[in-house]
Amino acid sequence: MPDQMAIDTPKTRELSLNKPTPFNAEQFKSKKFLQECILYMGINKDVYDTEPKRIVFMLSFMQEGNVVNKLNLDTGDIDLPTYKEFIDEFQKAFKPEEEDIDALDKLKMLRQKNLTAEQLVTKFKLLVGEAGMTNDSDTANKLLIEMFKMALNPALVQKIVMSEKKPTKIEEWYDKAMSFDRSY
């Protein structure tokens, strides 16, 4: 009997929604493709819970056109970049330049209103990515926190600021906002 390899199966089932439209390297479709992937993986975050899973998911929809060559992933090597590096490379390779300014304006105008905190966080992250912003420094992290606070409902900001352990990183702000919003 040949050796059998154990297969790690997901503990949760993937929600069956429309999967992203395959991407064919056309720049004007890159934003829509990226949004579809991020939203799909966000809905199925228990399935796509690691960076390699998210990257491979996106790559599985990038078989058409010259995508692999443009992303410099044709080396035959299986070492994947980090998810952030992958998204950065994707945006650098395919995003039209004028979208940076448009996304930044949308980010400045974003308000929670009737959105749940989870919906707001998803939109906020998408716009941050589209604007080419990162939180790789203390200054950038503080700027993102201030922009996120402007987008959140004031009552939720107040609740987070008055909480026992005030968040200092943007990811902590996302987590607290979603946690408090659910119990709100």
Q: Distance between termini?
A: 57 Å
| Radius of gyration, taken over Cα atoms and rounded to an integer in Å | 18 Å
The gross shape turns out to be: globular
Report the sheet-strand fraction.
under 5%
**What is the domain total for the residues?**
2
Query: How is the biggest beta sheet arranged?
Result: none
Organism: Psilocybe cyanescens
Protein name: Ty3 transposon capsid-like protein domain-containing protein
InterPro entries: Ty3_capsid (IPR045358)
Brief overview, please?
The protein is mostly helical and 184 residues long. It has helices spanning 30-43, 51-59, 67-70, 83-94, 99-109, 117-130, 138-151, 154-161, 170-182.
SSE layout and pairing:
Layout: H1 30-43, H2 51-59, H3 67-70, H4 83-94, H5 99-109, H6 117-130, H7 138-151, H8 154-161, H9 170-182
Helix pairs in contact: 5-6, 8-9
Describe the structure.
- The chain has 184 residues and is mainly alpha-helical.
- It has two domains: 27-94; 103-183.
- 54% of the residues lie in helices and 0% in strands.
- It contains nine helices and no strands.
- The protein has helices spanning 30-43, 51-59, 67-70, 83-94, 99-109, 117-130, 138-151, 154-161, 170-182.
- Helix 8 crosses helix 9.
- The longest helix is centred in the first third of the chain and has 14 residues, at 30-43.
- It is globular, with a radius of gyration of 18 Å.
- The mean pLDDT is 82.
- It holds the Pfam family Ty3_capsid.
- Residues 27-172 form the Ty3 transposon capsid-like protein domain.
- This is Ty3 transposon capsid-like protein domain-containing protein.
